[in-house]
Amino acid sequence: QKEVEQDPGPLSVPEGAIVSLNCTYSNSAFQYFMWYRQYSRKGPELLMYTYSSGNKEDGRFTAQVDKSSKYISLFIRDSQPSDSATYLCAMRSSGANSKLTFGKGITLSVRP
Amino acid sequence: KAGVTQTPRYLIKTRGQQVTLSCSPISGHRSVSWYQQTPGQGLQFLFEYFSETQRNKGNFPGRFSGRQFSNSRSEMNVSTLELGDSALYLCASSLSAGGPLGEQYFGPGTRLTVT
């Protein structure tokens, strides 16, 4: 079993839809959880960064972490065509030498 | 504040050659990590440097190596290139190598094509 599993997609939604992106993980030591957005031919851009369980909101984006279920989600409200990109979840433990482990990413397309 | 910069942005090399890629982190960031991104494998961790010391290493052969300089700039080297090394190589910097200040910011990447 891979340490981090992400829905493979691709995902296509109409403009204005609520988008839910999810990842599951197997390593209970993971403490820090991130979502990155990657546009075509660009490097990943950090969207959300959360520690442990709970919710974090930033504009149209909400990140949710459920450590008991080893499940994280990113919600995008009122999706826009400019949200069309690949979204990657990433996570790591709290140790100073811990490495960031990524999901494979899901490509989202928001249709005008 | 300037972001992470990587040079060159594009590179074409022949099998058997070697290549050196460069990364300049965000000012004040002391940790630099390198990743290989391919459509089939996604983002795979290569290694991380903090204060000129390699702190962590992924599962790549010894042909892949790196180093970090006193100004936190980093280079990675791939020797004896193989066709399978064609990928986007990404560099990410962070304030620290872990803990609450360990969130990573990525550069635009170097697209390496091996023919």
Strand element count of chain A: 11
Main interface: chain pair and counts: A-B, 24 and 24 residues
On the 0 to 100 scale, the average pLDDT of chain A is 92
| Helix-residue proportion of chain B | under 10%
Strand portion of chain B: over 45%
Oligomerization category of the chains in this entry? heterodimer
Derived structural class of chain A: mainly beta
Question: Can you count the beta strands of chain B?
Answer: 11
> How far apart are the termini of chain A?
37 Å
Evaluate the radius of gyration of chain A. Answer: 14 Å
Total helical segments of chain A: 0
With helices defined by DSSP (H or I, 4 residues minimum), what is the helix count of chain B?
A: 0
What fraction of the residues of chain A are assigned to beta strands by DSSP? over 45%
- The CA-CA distance between the termini of chain B, in Å, is 37 Å
Shape of chain B: globular
* Gyration radius from CA atoms of chain B, angstroms: 13 Å
SSE arrangement of chain B, N to C: EEEEEEEEEEE
Largest beta-sheet characterization of chain A: 6 strands, mixed
Q: In terms of per-residue confidence, which ranges of chain B show pLDDT below 50 for 5 or more consecutive residues?
A: none
